[in-house]
Amino acid sequence: MRLFAVVVALVLAAVGLSTFIGFAGAANTQGAGFFGIDETSGSFEMQEASSNATMAVASESSPEVIVRDMSAGYEEIAQEEEAARIAAEEAAAAAEAEAIQRANDARSKYLNQFGSLPAGDVDFSIGRDAFIEEWGSRIDDYLSGTTLAGYGETFAAAAWEYGVDPRWSPAISNTESGNGKVCFLPHNAWGWGSSSWGNWTDAIYSHVRGLANGYGFTISYSFAGKYCPPFTDHWYNNTLSQMKLI
């Protein structure tokens, strides 16, 4: 009996050892899956954690990148605006220099032809803004209470643009129409051919341009004879006296 019991014990021990070895092998082979844990699930969780970490780093660095890019954009815009400002100033300065030269050339041509300026000189070298401010105010005073009241700046700006004495056109308007009171054609205050205009601004610019192109810098007796042949003396004397009032 004792021998039989020993044999049975040895058999049971052998079976238990075999079962344990099989269990261990399965555990080694199947890994975490043997315990109901999916290896791919663990891998996904690790990847997700890594991705989250990357996103966190990106989130922390992104504001710096955006700020840097926006700063560069602002700087570029500021540089473009500054370049545009400088270009505009240079263009204005060039246009002003051209206008001054145009007036100087017209004055020189007149002096070479007639020797002196009957109504006195006009200084264009003070620059456009100062010129228009000074002569616009003086012409407004002269035209106060007339049909052309308030157009002093327009007369001055046109004279600057075309390089002629700013007093000439408003004085002619007095001789020809009482400063626009009696016009034989719409907005034609100068007895200027058969011309008419829809407004005073266009009319003033057109007349001043005509004086610059067809006559010269300022009034002269020969220009009076060309402008109003039948009444040269009266036209010249009246227009010149009006110019001296401005």
Question: Briefly, what is this?
Answer:
Keywords: Signal. The protein is an all-alpha fold and 246 residues long.
Account of the 3D structure:
Residues 1-26 form the signal peptide. Keywords: Signal. This is CMP-2-keto-3-deoxyoctulosonic acid synthetase. With 246 residues, the chain is mainly α. It has a domain at 99-243. 72% of the residues lie in helices and 0% in strands. It contains 8 helices and no strands. Helix 5 (168-177) packs across helix 8 (232-243). Residues 1-61 have low confidence and may be disordered.
| Chain-averaged pLDDT | 81
Number of strands: 0
Q: Please give the count of helices.
A: 8
**How far from one another are the termini?**
153 Å
As a percent range, the share of strand residues is: under 5%
Q: What percent of residues adopt helix (DSSP H or I)? A: over 70%
Largest sheet composition: none
Write the element-wise H/E pattern from the N-terminal end onward.
HHHHHHHH
Q: Structural class, please?
A: mainly alpha
Contiguous uncertain segments of 5+ residues:
1-61
Coarse shape:
elongated
What Rg do the Cα atoms give? 49 Å
Keywords:
mainly alpha; 8 helices; disordered N terminus
Layout: helices, strands, pairs:
Blueprint: H1 2-30, H2 39-114, H3 128-143, H4 152-162, H5 168-177, H6 200-214, H7 221-227, H8 232-243
